[in-house]
Amino acid sequence: MPYRAPVEDYQFIFDHVVGLAQVTATDRFSETTPDLTSAILSEAGRMCEEVLHPLQRNGDLHPAHLENGVVRTSPGFAEGYRAIAEGGWVSIGADPAHGGMGLPMTLTTAVNEMMSAACLSLQLNPLMTQGQIEALEHHASDAIKDIYLPRLVSGEWCGTMNLTEAQAGSDVGALRSKANPNGDGTYAITGQKIFISWGDNDFAENVCHLVLARLPDGKPGTKGISLFIVPKYIPDENGAPGRANDLSVVSLEHKMGLHGSPTCVMQYDGATGWLVGEEHDGMRAMFTMMNNARLGVGGQGIGAAEGALQHALAYAQERKQGRSPVENGTGTIIDHADVRRMLTTMKAETYAARSIALACAVAIDMQTATGAADWAARAAFLTPIAKAFGTDTGIAVSDLGVQVHGGMGYIEETGAAQYLRDVRVTAIYEGTNGIQAMDFTARKLMDGGEAAHALIDEIEAQAEGARAKLPELAEPVWQASETLREGLDWMLGQSDLTQRFAGAVPFLRAFARVLGGHYHLAAAIAEGGDGPRTRLARFYITRLLPEHEGLLAHATAGADDLYALSPEDLSA
Amino acid sequence: MPYRAPVEDYQFIFDHVVGLAQVTATDRFSETTPDLTSAILSEAGRMCEEVLHPLQRNGDLHPAHLENGVVRTSPGFAEGYRAIAEGGWVSIGADPAHGGMGLPMTLTTAVNEMMSAACLSLQLNPLMTQGQIEALEHHASDAIKDIYLPRLVSGEWCGTMNLTEAQAGSDVGALRSKANPNGDGTYAITGQKIFISWGDNDFAENVCHLVLARLPDGKPGTKGISLFIVPKYIPDENGAPGRANDLSVVSLEHKMGLHGSPTCVMQYDGATGWLVGEEHDGMRAMFTMMNNARLGVGGQGIGAAEGALQHALAYAQERKQGRSPVENGTGTIIDHADVRRMLTTMKAETYAARSIALACAVAIDMQTATGAADWAARAAFLTPIAKAFGTDTGIAVSDLGVQVHGGMGYIEETGAAQYLRDVRVTAIYEGTNGIQAMDFTARKLMDGGEAAHALIDEIEAQAEGARAKLPELAEPVWQASETLREGLDWMLGQSDLTQRFAGAVPFLRAFARVLGGHYHLAAAIAEGGDGPRTRLARFYITRLLPEHEGLLAHATAGADDLYALSPEDLSA
Questions:
Q1: Residues of chain A found within 8 Å of residue B516, distances taken between Cβ atoms
Q2: Quick check: A156 pLDDT over 80?
Q3: What domains, with CATH codes, occur in chain A?
């Protein structure tokens, strides 16, 4: 089942919905011409279609496995990775000083999404490397940068993130890994890390681990954590991989999906590491990397959604079943209203999630280019929505994809179930979607709601502008944003964060729902109120947007009823 | 991770929510005393806890497989099946004339649900046999009944349903299997059937297939289909399994879950079969069996939900992580509001789905006992809701169970993901949930909405009665039922069924939402407005019930916008 890169959709959203032009109008991104953007999308798209997508099933059927302590990757993954590296797609956003192209995050987001749609388990590898590049660019010494960055950017080396330990998951501060100074400027890293995505592979010259550990004088909790770069092979004086470091892959997890991505338990036995950033300041460096990684994971969800949609749409157009219930039907199941409802939902949700992610990327780019605080606030505010709604959409759309297939959806050989199994983890890793929602309702409202209100103001301004020409689309969006504002004010009124957290997930989702309406309306406006995007907007605004009311009722119910029920009350 | 049968919940719902007493007050079910009910629940519950649940992981880790044409079942399944058969749990509802206990469907529903929670893949086996028993009781000749029923009821033999063919899924009428009269009263059955759950096993003496096929003079479509019983081994003059019939298992499907249940491609090569019911009247017999099987599949969803809830609740109470955000917290993740939100949602949804299924079962029992048309209509009306909402709840609750586990939820060894993978098929088989919703909005409204309005009247009457004492619970339920009535009237106003079908799934869900509110309110009333069930009702009514408004907006949007978008509009 082929994958077709949705290049036109990115281009449309760039041009008419999120305003890539304001990014490329800055000095920082002035080299990103329309021609370059177009070439990037089509070249990356072609690689995804031709090279990566044929590997998708391999990853599932022939999982990465451990062989004498070495990870053996799925058939074809080495060639797929080579295509990514040679095309320069590991990190098109990296600093040109180290071999990158310095392109906007907006383009990176689109390219990452296409690679995710084509082969999610392999794409997770460069996504991890991208995060490492970013952390090193911002926090590493020049000596480290000079050794690692060119090789990571070129794809010769890969990067990983090592946060989690058995007792330290969402609570990173509970980690026990130790770092002892060796007296020569290096550190001896000791401890065990779990859930390390792509902790090893058999196609890169070196695998470089960013590891959180505690120095002997590090305080308990997150404030005593430092960040280290710990390579599989220690670079020699020329930067070439030298002797093997004292680290190993202990085992791989057996997961629900994403079998092509080796999830490793990593053991560090006094492995040599180099400090990145300041001592005890590791969390700050980690957050640099995590924020954009969160957008990246949101993009994984959207990619999976796109893949599942295309897969289901193709099946629905070829599966003959029953008499056509409509005149001039095709005789396939796409003639059925309920199948159309599912497919149209998949399309409308994918577009909404994609627009949110790209709007977040534009805000990051504007922050990078201008340093303006309002763009930084916008980027920070949209990141948890992009992550949680993008991944929830990936799961929901893949689930609909299974349903469109009927009985065949449950049979693995069709590949529909793989999308669902693969994407399921994206709601969990890089901060669960519950953690995203807590971040959203606590940290991201610490400005007193300024960023949130500013965004709602924009939503209302666009809706007001469209009211005369597109009343049946603009009015519901305007009304929904007013209801959302009431929910926001309720949140801001809660000084006890537990009250917010009790409704954090539905609140984030309600915000995403309204944003989705906003971006669908933007598409209809751009189309002049007539065309397929306007029809899709009507579907979304009429059928999906109304969900926000129930979500806001849920969001603002407070925590008291939750704690009034004891664990015993919830038992059988 | 142990499973505890929720016996108290069934008992409470029997006594205070769905009124089992009216069933046991009939002559037909007068022997179902409170003591017997209690004994059935506790005995079946104990078997599920002690014998079946320990097999759950085996089914996943060691799937049923085909060995020289014979299905080899998962380790322990033979012993588990023996416990079901020897305990008399294959079919407690079967006619005592053939060895059954003649107990109400309400009890069967509870027992089936417990077995599903404990080990879904094995429970599917007796569920299929139950359907076969019912079809034979209603449609077979005495000669067939005498041979088959005692052996099916005792569990010596198993039963299967053979409807689907590669080109005939939801569209059963497209089937091509043939039946040719042999001249001796038997028929030669030829054709291939797919997706045959438990098409073979290595623990029963015989496997009896109910097969839909077309006689030489059968018309095309569903009206030319006849039903046959086709045993693996042909019974000799004493009814003992004799020579092997001309049928075989060609292959097993590789599925997303439910690995312990062999899903077979069955080949019939002139196999000897006996007609069940009249010629060309097979669909009627099949529907007898399918209706109750639909309720049974709904119960599978609810069982999986209960299992996933217990599993997640146990994990949440033992997983330490982070500082407790509340005073006097336990230090485990259950202290966190978002984890509580998930667990409480799981509990509230499971209760709602269970009450709906048991209300459906009570209606079936009243229909059986009294023959009253209004009970028959109630049973028919509730069946698609019980099936679709029960299975959707199973999926949603299992999905939340994965999320509660965080990263561990994606690792197969915890077992959380298995609930989700296993239960996913229940929204597909026995009529997809889309088919259920179409049945609900078309056939089940053919009475002009009488059954629907009668049910809404009851919801409103209870809410009105509770308004004085429990206004904050009763009022929202009353309001929601009024909104639901408006949606119903919209549906009834559409003579073009495609208009209904475009919103059928959200309409069914909205109806279930309101029914859930009704049954939660009933629990609060029974508790006198104070206690854990009242608190759970408050959670549901405040947070989940409001979803109905968005669903009804979706349900009543009509089909035009769906068909205004072409397949090309949905493509990349």
A1: none
A2: yes
A3: 433-566 (1.20.120)
